[in-house]
Amino acid sequence: MTTPSSSTKKDTNVGDFIEPSNGFEEDDMLTPSDENQHQFLESENFEQELGTTGLEDPFSENFSDISRLNIVEVHSQGDLVARPIIVIYAYRLPPNKEFDHQKFLRYLQHTLDKFVDLDYSIVYCHYGLRSNNKPPLKWLVQAYQVLDRRYKKNLKALFLVHPSTFIRIVWNIFKPFISLKFERKVHYVNYLHELNTYIRIAQLNLPQVIIDHDMSLVSTSKTFFGRTPPPLPPRPTQQFNVSLEFILENHPDYMVPPLVVSLIEFLRNYGLEVEGIFRRSAELNAITRLQERINLGKEIDWINDPEYVGDIQKAVIHASVLLKTFLRSLGEPIMTNNNYSKLVEIEDPKSNTEAVRTLIWSLKPANFLLLKTVIQFLTEVAAHI
Description:
Elements: H1 32-42, H2 46-50, H3 64-67, E1 72-75, E2 85-89, H4 101-112, E3 120-125, H5 137-146, H6 149-153, E4 155-161, H7 165-174, H8 180-183, E5 186-189, H9 201-204, H10 208-225, H11 244-250, H12 258-270, H13 284-295, H14 312-328, H15 340-345, H16 353-361, H17 365-383
Parallel strand pairs: 2-3, 3-4, 4-5
Antiparallel strand pairs: 1-2
Helix pairs in contact: 12-14
């Protein structure tokens, strides 16, 4: 995945920043007041100049006026490894003269506090940011400071969707204040389809205005660079983002996907004593690299691989995340979409075991065996809690 600082490596999903075809757009230009704030950023005592933020007790404040604007939306299990996603829409920001940015900052803290102890990602949709609703640079620095290490630590990825020249200008201004570790979490996303490797776009319920803008950009890119080639068929070795039937057809010696067999075997031998084995997550880039290797038919040596030598806990967490990612990438739940309505109708599964048993036995053999394998292993995990 490409970050603002790593343009030497080409990624096929999330691309480098694409310069707008018309150069500096009017709303991307820094205003004189922005230039003054740039000088403020360079001052030695800018922390003192920021003053207090009044964030002593953000939970006691009424944020209904900001909440109804839907600038910020939360999706509890938005990405492919079941991490919460915070989506921020710039086009919904009101004009600066009508908006209390300090209260909005407190609202952001109030929202993030619900997820700060979990791994999470942020998607910022830049479309719609104009000169009349663009937050002052001074406020952006203030936000970066207020949302301190506690918020940045578990942030796994910050996706900047539809970035403009203004984003690059701001990035260059902020760069001296941003740690290398945080910088690696920031990724430009020029088109929505680039996110699909990491986030299920359909689950975000993106506003039509964002989708229309993206379609316009894609259409323009096809005009300049030619039509996008059709997607290649999956490799026979592929196990992520293909159906259960496809995997078993291409691995006839297995009754359960070979990846599931190998992951559970490793986790059973090395992971049962690891605390939070299925609650913790890993860096998106690391999981993506593992997926690519597995889809090419390569086996992961969790003990001797250079990335895991001497760090068995890291290997266990990566393996557990891969197992969750695999199950989510099948395209359909193990219990199948057809059985979903029957499943939710079972009000109390513990007292209605017969209905649950009937539902399970109605599954196709492949789904039944996969479900049985996973449940048996999860029972072992639960016994070690």
